[in-house]
From TrEMBL:
SUPFAM superfamilies: Prokaryotic lipoproteins and lipoprotein localization factors. InterPro entries: LolA/LolB/LppX, Sporulation_related. It comes from Phytohabitans maris. This is MucB/RseB N-terminal domain-containing protein. Residues 255-285 are annotated as: Disordered.
Length: 366
């Protein structure tokens, strides 16, 4: 089956790269908002992990800078996000500034600030707003607790150090070495540093560093370093932070006059519990290996590309490296932290590993 006839695999290509980053433009920002190393009472790695797990946060607002230098080509967006969602290719290749507000799990707001406009994701109780000032368009959904349990919001890439740390800490298992790094001052606050490193040196990830507020125990910065490099491939950090609870007005959104508003109830049908696949295998998703060297395998579908999506898919393939071997043939996306192989039979292989490991899995998968 020609690779161009497999839309699900192609549409999974860029999100796969995003997943590789969070489990773990242009130039990186260096050590964001960090100054001299403060003197703090000693804390063990286990104590810092407990601090993160038991921290209670009533409210927070601040400015976040996120940067990525993943060594990727300038891919067109295939993430399928609608108006109001952050452009995933921007978050994978550029330096971005975001404003964040938090007043409990059902009152959150993230604003991605761009030169051409602002993109907001706002959760206020049962109201979820996705707003694009550039397009003057909003998507409004009325959601329930069951909806958010089935499909937590927002998704894709982490937009705060807390989200990034949560996903990195999910990798803490016997395959991970956890140590304490150097303390730092970030956004004017003293912080400890927790360091996560893969025990399996076959991973392209060298280490993940999480700076934790010494008083509030909230992540202030997360950095991901490729193996053998002292230059970050991905980082996200507060440059300004306030732990006072934001005013409720921050979470109320009224579309401006003339804005296009898409109104709907609940989440898309594919995300609902009664219609979603019951297991990853049902969705054509499996994994090979464990820990930091896990390879995700996503089976291709049969429906064909058409129109704009087909043009985008062709553009992506033209930017990828053609590869072939005993496993078959396809196209390779290789970055500083991960590799993604799109085979000509429509199957995608992705992991925090070198391409050679993907070829091994593809051969076993034949």
């Amino acid at each position: 089956m020609p690779v161009m006839n497999s839309r699900p695999a192609l549409r999974w290509l860029v999100p796969a790269a995003a997943v590789a980053v969070v489990v773990g433009g242009g130039a990186a920002v260096g050590t964001l908002a960090a100054t001299a190393e403060p003197s703090l009472p000693p804390r063990t790695a286990q104590q810092l992990l407990v601090d993160l797990q038991t921290a209670r946060l009533d409210g927070l607002s601040g400015t976040v800078v996120q940067s990525a230098d993943l060594g990727l080509p300038n891919l067109p967006s295939l993430a399928g996000g609608g108006s109001g969602t952050a452009d995933i290719t921007s978050l994978l290749t550029d330096t971005n500034q975001l404003r964040v507000w938090y007043s409990g799990p059902d009152k959150t707001r993230v604003a991605l600030m761009g030169t051409l406009g602002e993109t907001d994701v706002i959760r206020n109780g049962k109201d979820l707003w996705l707003w694009s000032s550039k397009e003057n368009k909003a998507v409004h959904r009325t959601i329930s607790d069951a909806d958010t349990k089935a499909h937590p919001l927002p998704s894709d890439l982490p937009m705060t150090p807390q989200e990034a740390a949560d996903r990195a800490l999910a990798a803490v298992d016997p395959t991970t070495e956890v140590t304490v790094g150097r303390s730092a001052t970030i956004a004017g606050r003293d912080a400890y540093e927790l360091v996560l490193a893969p025990r399996d040196k076959a991973s392209l990830v060298g280490e993940v560093r999480i700076a934790i507020d010494a008083a509030e125990h909230v992540p202030l910065r997360l950095e991901v370093f490729p193996k053998g490099s002292d230059q970050t491939a991905f980082q996200i950090a507060f440059t300004q932070v306030d732990f006072a609870r934001p005013d409720d007005a921050q979470f109320r959104f009224n579309p401006p006059p003339g804005a296009q508003v898409d109104e709907s109830t609940g989440l898309p049908e594919a995300a609902k519990p009664d219609t979603a696949p019951k297991t990853p295998e049902d969705a054509g998703f499996t994994t090979v290996g464990e820990g930091w060297t896990t390879v995700a395998v996503v089976e291709g579908g049969e429906d064909g590309e058409a129109g704009q999506e087909g043009d985008q898919a062709a553009q992506v393939l033209s930017m990828l490296t053609p590869v072939s071997g005993a496993w078959g043939s396809g196209h390779l996306l290789s970055g500083r932290l991960f590799s993604v192989l799109l085979s000509d039979d429509g199957t995608v292989y992705a992991g925090l590993v070198a391409p050679e490991r993907l070829y091994e899995v593809a051969l076993e998968h034949k």
